[in-house]
Amino acid sequence: MQQKTHIKKGDLVKVLAGEDRSKQGRVLEVDRDRMVAIIEGLNINKKHSKPTTAKPQGGIVEQEGPIHLSNLMLIDAKSGTPGRVGRKVSKEGVIERYVKTKKKAAK
Questions:
Q1: Around Cβ 16, how many Cβ atoms within 10 Å?
Q2: What angle do CA 97, 71, 27 make, to 5 degrees?
Q3: Which of 36, 46, 25, 31 is nearest to 71 (CA)?
Q4: Handedness of CA 47, 50, 56, 57 (dihedral sign)
Q5: 84 beta partners
Q6: Closest C-alpha among 13, 27, 20 to residue 84
Q7: Please, what is the Cα angle at 33 between 95 and 80, to 5 degrees?
Q8: Which helix (H) or strand (E) holds 72?
Q9: What is the pLDDT of residues 43-61, one digit of tens each?
Q10: For residue 77, what pLDDT band results from cuts at 50, 70 and 90?
């Protein structure tokens, strides 16, 4: 069963945990069944490939690995700050996502 996710393809995200902690990247793909996303340039894995007719040399290929969605935080496109995702219904009845950022308390 697929669940609703807070991350979509093309979003700019920040990694919260793991080897690539505090790095940013664009989402290339989201797998809602496994609740993971592939981020451009992050979580690089080396895959050993046998020679084929397409690639007779074979060798070691580096590719992005999946990161669980709970370890990702959406970055606001306008301000560039990461935050939680909220949803609100516009006047036209369309659901819009927005980033909830911390507001500094006045003393």
A1: 15
A2: 60
A3: 36
A4: positive
A5: 100
A6: 13
A7: 50
A8: strand 72-75
A9: 999 999 999 998 899 899 9
A10: confident
Looking up tokens 């490939």 gives: 49
Tokens 């069944």 — which residue?
33
Q: Nearest CA to 76 among 102, 51, 54? A: 102
Amino acid at 52: T
Q: Is the pLDDT of residue 78 over 90?
A: no
Q: Would you tell me which CATH number, out of the four given (3.30.1330.10, 2.40.50.140, 3.30.70.260, 2.30.30.30), belongs to the domain 12-77?
A: 2.30.30.30
- The SS3 assignment for 4 reads coil
